[in-house]
Design goal:
Layout: H1 2-13, H2 51-68, E1 80-84, H3 86-97, E2 104-108, E3 115-117, H4 120-129, H5 138-155, H6 160-172, H7 180-184, H8 186-194, H9 218-232, H10 235-246, H11 256-263, H12 273-284, E4 285-287, H13 305-316, H14 320-334, E5 344-349, E6 370-373, H15 391-408, E7 418-420, E8 425-427
Parallel strand pairs: 1-2, 2-5, 3-4, 5-6
Antiparallel strand pairs: 7-8
Helix pairs in contact: 2-3, 5-6, 5-9, 5-10, 9-10, 12-14
Length: 441
């Protein structure tokens, strides 16, 4: 992780190392306060939340720190940004847009290719269920896929079979209010089946967890699925048993209208939910659909892009065409896979579905160094060190350390209002936040 890297630089290379952890505006405790005491996550007030604001915040902080702290015995400080997932995107973009301020960047599991419709995410989940390196198998994937198909057949039944199908699914999966939600709105059926009736820990797979039998990784989950199937002989009933083990509620809430109401409210500020969805509507997309022509292991055809676009329009007032245009603007501004920056390392795990939109060597710029970590999930090598970390995780940390050390001996780009030859990016001496910006302490 970052602390481990800093410790090695200090102990082995005698480097003067200072760590600063920056919290992104509109997340955690960093919500701005407005003169009228209105909610910071109202549509009007969310206008100050964007990744462009965030990278300007990084640049502003670096300038402030350079002017107020003695960081390197009075010598110029070489800043290295480091992050995983969306913070990994911010890390890369901070170096890309401000190469005179950020010396280098490590970008872990960062989907820098903004994309409206992201079916590859669930296609990758299917691949993980069959990936023997993390305990998956073809049998496990088959049971999960067939189970969702069987549920889909019951929820799409017509005539006399309709009532029996709805009732059976509602009973098996302990749906709140029984089969009523399925009769009430087809969108309830879509939300129930389109994102899966069980949780599959592909993004957060941790091989070391689950010694108590909990279903916290793919190996344990697949073992449990196959065991349930051996007893029931029904793929659907196997999923129902797994869903019950994973649930912490008395019943499964299926209410699309209620979901829209929640996402439109101040209550969705919790855990940054409303902030992140705002950013997807206004910058990135990333909507994890499950279409008929995909290899998604859930209910194929039950999660179309229209579902996510409805959230943007109802909860944030952003119409579909504007969402599409916003994604294109992000690609134009940052470059996506065509980023032509320098001194930016991309590290990805082959279990992580987000790797589909990152720069991996096979995708994106071939001029930027990449690390491909076998058997690893979402920036797992950035987590705290464990005795159970595998060789691939340890090797990834060594490669990142080596690359950062190599870059630290290189000289910075020249300051000034000129275009840096390595990045084709405008370089500025004085970087200020965007014109309309709330800077919080």
């Amino acid at each position: 992780d970052m602390i481990y890297l800093a410790q090695r630089l200090f102990e082995e290379e005698n480097a003067i190392v200072h760590l600063f952890a920056l919290e992104h505006r509109y997340y955690g405790k960093s919500y701005p306060e407005f003169p009228d005491n209105s909610s910071p996550v109202s549509n009007e007030n969310l206008q100050y939340l964007s990744s462009r604001q965030a990278i300007h915040d990084v640049a502003t902080f670096i300038q402030y720190a350079n002017g107020h702290y003695i960081l390197n015995d009075g010598n110029p400080t070489k800043w290295v940004t480091f992050g995983g997932s969306y913070p990994g995107m911010v890390s890369a973009w901070s170096r890309y847009k401000f190469p005179n301020l950020v010396h280098a960047a490590v970008s872990n599991s960062s989907p820098v290719q903004a994309q409206l419709d992201f079916p590859e995410y669930n296609n990758h989940v299917a691949k993980d269920l069959g990936y023997d390196v993390v305990g998956g198998s073809a049998e496990c994937l088959d049971i999960v896929s067939r189970g969702h198909e069987e549920i889909g057949e019951l929820l799409s039944a017509e005539g006399e079979e309709k009532e029996g199908g709805y009732e059976k699914v509602a009973e098996l999966f302990h749906v709140c209010n029984g089969a009523e939600p399925f009769y009430k709105d087809v969108k309830n059926k879509n939300m129930f089946l389109g994102d899966g009736v069980i949780y599959i820990p592909a993004q957060g797979n941790d091989p070391s967890c689950g010694s108590d039998g909990s279903l916290c990784n793919i190996a344990n989950l697949c073992d449990a699925i196959i065991e349930e199937y051996s007893q029931s002989g029904s793929a659907m009933e196997s999923l129902a048993a797994i869903a019950k083990r994973q649930s912490y509620r008395d019943c499964t809430e299926v209410d699309w209208h209620g979901t829209l109401q929640y996402l439109s409210s101040d209550a969705a500020r919790r855990d940054g939910v409303r902030s992140w969805i705002w950013q997807t509507c206004n910058e990135f997309g990333f909507y994890q659909t499950c279409e008929h022509d995909s290899s998604c292991p859930y209910g194929k055809g039950y999660h179309a892009i229209e579902q996510d676009l409805e959230i943007c329009e109802v909860a944030f007032g952003v119409p579909p065409e504007e969402v599409k245009a916003n994604v294109e603007k992000s690609l134009q501004y940052y470059g996506g896979w065509d980023m032509d920056g320098s001194r930016i390392m991309f590290a990805n795990g082959d279990v992580d579905p987000w790797a589909e939109l990152s720069i991996t060597g096979g995708k994106g710029s071939e001029d930027l160094p990449t690390v491909w970590v076998k058997g690893a999930s979402h920036h797992f090598w950035t987590h705290a060190l464990k005795d159970t970390d595998g060789e691939a995780i340890e090797d990834a940390r060594l490669v990142i350390h080596g690359q950062v050390m190599e870059w630290l001996v290189e000289e910075d780009e020249k300051s000034g209002s000129e275009v840096d030859k390595n990045t084709n990016t405008q370089v500025f001496d004085d970087v200020e936040p965007l014109a309309e910006s709330y800077v919080t302490e």
